[in-house]
Amino acid sequence: MRNKLFAGLALIALVAPAWAEETRQISVPGNPILADGDYYSTDPAPFVADGALWILAGRDQAPPDVNDFIMGEWQLLRTDDPKSGKWTHYPDIAKPENVFAWAEEARAYAGQIVQGPDKRYYFYAPVLEKNSDAKDRFAIGVAVADSPTGPWRDAHPSGPIISQRVPVVNDIQNIDPTVLIDNDGRIYLYWGTFGKLLGMELERDMVSPKGAEQAIEGLTGFFEAPWIMKRKGVYYMLYAGNKAGSTSDCTPAVYHACIAYGTAPSPMGPWTYRGVALKPVSSTTSHSGAVEYKGQWYLAYHTADAQGGGHFRRSVALDRLDWDDSVTPARIRTVVPTLRPQPSLPPSRNIAPAASVKVSNEPVPVQYWIKSLNDGITKVAPLPPDMWGSWSPSNPASQWIEYRWDKAVTIDGSRIWFWNDQPAGANVGVAPPAAWHLEYWDSRAKGGWKPVPGASGYGTQSGGFQTVSFPPIHVRCLRAVMMASGDDRSHAALAVQEWEVLALKAMRPSARDANRRLGAACS
Ligand code: FUB
Predict the structure, then answer these.
(1) Nearest CA among 226, 174, 244, 515 for reference residue 384
(2) Strands (E), 380-465
(3) Is the minimum distance from the CB of 112 to ligand 1 under 6 angstroms?
(4) Residue 21: per-residue pLDDT
(5) Which pLDDT belongs to residue 514?
(6) Sequence-ordered list of residues with C-beta below 8 angstroms from that of 492, at least 6 positions apart, any chain
(7) Which residues on neighbouring strands pair with residue 303, listed in sequence order?
(8) What band does 512 get if pLDDT is binned at 50, 70 and 90?
(9) 348-512 is classed in which CATH architecture?
(10) What CA–CA distance (Å, rounded) separates 277 from 288?
(11) pLDDT for 1-18, tens place per residue?
C-alpha cells in the first residue's frame, strides 16, 4: 500500500539527505497527517526542538481483523509550519528490543521525548520487560540521544526506571509516561492507566527517583494517557477520561474516551477537574499531547480516520488548541477536530443516515453506542462501541430500534447487520435474534405499528447484511422489532452493527449530522 494516493490528494515521497534514506516529505491538506494507510501513527507526543515542531508517535501494525496493540516501533513527524501541511516523516526511529536490552519487541507504547538540563533528549518509553515475574510486565525505560532522531541508547541500562518492582512495588500497569521540566529545573514524571495515575519527582539525571511515588487524585474520570504541561503558572493535566453515561460531558459509551483536563497550583496537586478538551474521536482510545509552537498552542491526538483505519490502526492529527483567558485558571476551549477534504460519497439508496434514532432500551448500556446504528461503518472485528446493543443482567424477550425521518420517505428495502458473541439460540450473552421483522407507523385512522406488508423474508444470521425487500411504502417512522433467542428461564441480548433503509432511487447522501436531535414521534 506504500505511497498510495488517498482521496486523490498527493502524498509526495522524496528522498531526504544523509541518515535519512527512510525519511519522506509529506504534503497534506489536513488530518490525519499520515492518511493513506501506509503507516499508521498513534499516541502522539509533540515537542519543540531545533526550532521545529516534532511529534513522537507509535506505529499501529495490527491487521484489520486483529483487535490488539501490535506496535513494533516509534516514528517522528517534523514541521516548521503546521499550517503548511508540510511534514518530514521519520519512520522507525527506535524499536524497544534495539534500545533496551531488557525489553521485548512489538509493544512500543505511548512515549514522550523531552530535552533534559544537559540539552540532550530523553525518551520515556513504555515497553514489555522480557524477563520479569511481575504480574504485568509493562515497564518504563529511558533512552537518551543528542538528536530527536537518535540514535537512541538506554540511559539506565540496568533496567526500567518504573515497573511493578522498581523503584517500589506497585500493582498498576506502568505505561503512558509524561514528563515536565519545571521553570525551577525540577523534573516530574507521571504515568498510569486503567484509572490509576501516579506521579514522582526525578533527579536532574532524568532517571533517578527523588522522593516517593504519589497517587494523583482529583482528575475526574481519569482512565489513561496523562499529559502534563504548564501555562501562566498553572499546571494542566490532559488525560483520556471515560466518565461514561447518557448525561456525561465526556462520553456516553464506556469504550470511548474524551480528552478531559484538570489544573493544579503545584505539580503534585491538588488537582481540580476542569472539563473536556476534545470530544471522543473515531478510535476507542484517545491519546493527546499539547504544545506551544511559534505563539500558537496545538493539540496532537489520534483517530481511526486514515484509510483502512480502526481502533488498532490509528493515525495522528493536529489541531489548534485555544485558551479562554477570561476565566482563572484559563479554560481550554474544546478543540475542533478538522479533517482533510473528503471525497464526495457516491449516490446511495440508504437513507438511514438522514434519520434520528430511538430504541427500546434507553438509556442504552454504556458499552454500546446508539450512533453506530446509522454511521455507515461496518467492521469485520467490531468492538462493543461499534454497535447498538441491549445486554443487561436480565434481558427481555424483545427489543426494537426505530428511525424517524423529518418528512415521510418512500422505501422498498432494508439491510441489517446483527452482532453476536454467543451462537444462535443461546439464552445468555448476545445472540442473533430468533426472529425479526419491520414495522411502520400507520397514520391512518387511529394509527398504530403495523408489519411492513409483502416482506421477502427476514434472515437472522450475524456477521453480514441481511436484506429484505418489499413493495414501496411511504413511512415517516420505521422499526426493526427483534425477538431474542432463549427459553423459559432467560433470553440473550441483541446487537446491531448497522441498519440501512433503502429508498427507491439512489441519491447524494446529505452530510451526516452526528448531533442530530431526536425527531418527533409518529404516535
Ligand atoms: O497505544 C497503546 C495504548 O493505547 C496507549 O498506551 C494508551 O494511551 C492508548 O492510546
Answers:
(1) 244
(2) 388-389, 398-418, 435-442, 448-451
(3) no
(4) 47
(5) 56
(6) 395, 420, 422, 426, 427, 428, 429, 430, 431, 484, 485, 486
(7) 315
(8) low
(9) Sandwich (2.60)
(10) 10
(11) 223 322 333 333 333 334
What's the pLDDT band for 63 if we cut at 50, 70, 90? Answer: very high
Element (H, E) at 158: none
**Residue 43 alpha carbon, nearest atom of ligand 1:** 10
196 vs 226: CA distance, rounded Å: 10
Per-residue pLDDT band at 515 (split at 50, 70, 90): low
Query: What percent of the chain has pLDDT above 90?
Result: 86
How many alpha carbons fall within 13 Å on the CB side of residue 215?
8
Q: What is the pLDDT of residues 296-336, one digit of tens each?
A: 999 999 999 999 999 999 999 999 999 999 999 999 999 99
Top-confidence residue, 341 or 216: 216
- Residue 115 pairs in a beta bridge with 121
Q: Whose CA is nearest to atom 4 of ligand 1?
A: 285
- CATH topology of 33-332 equal to that of 348-512? no
Cell of 468: 429484505
Ligand 1 touching residue 110 (CB < 6 A): yes
Q: How far apart are CA 453 and CA 344, in angstroms?
A: 35
All structural domains of the chain with their residue ranges: 33-332, 348-512
The dihedral formed by the CA atoms of 46, 225, 383 and 403, expressed in degrees to the nearest 10: -80
Binding site membership of 287 for ligand 1 (Cβ less than 6 Å): yes
What is the bridge-based pairing of β-strands 495-507 and 348-350? antiparallel
CATH classification (class only), 33-332: mainly beta
Nearest alpha carbon, ligand 1 atom 5? 110
Considering only CA atoms, which of 460, 499, 456, 503 is closest in space to residue 480? Answer: 499
Measured between alpha carbons, how far is residue 461 from residues 28, 372, 424 in Å? 42, 19, 8
336 CB neighbour count, 10 Å cutoff: 11
3-state secondary structure of 86: strand
- Distance, in Å, from the CA atom of 523 to the CA atom of 514, rounded to the nearest integer, reads 24
> Within 13 Å, how many C-alpha atoms sit on residue 397's CB side?
3
Instruction: Give the pLDDT confidence of 404-462 residue by residue, as tens digits.
Output: 999 999 999 999 999 999 999 999 999 999 999 999 999 887 789 999 999 999 999 99
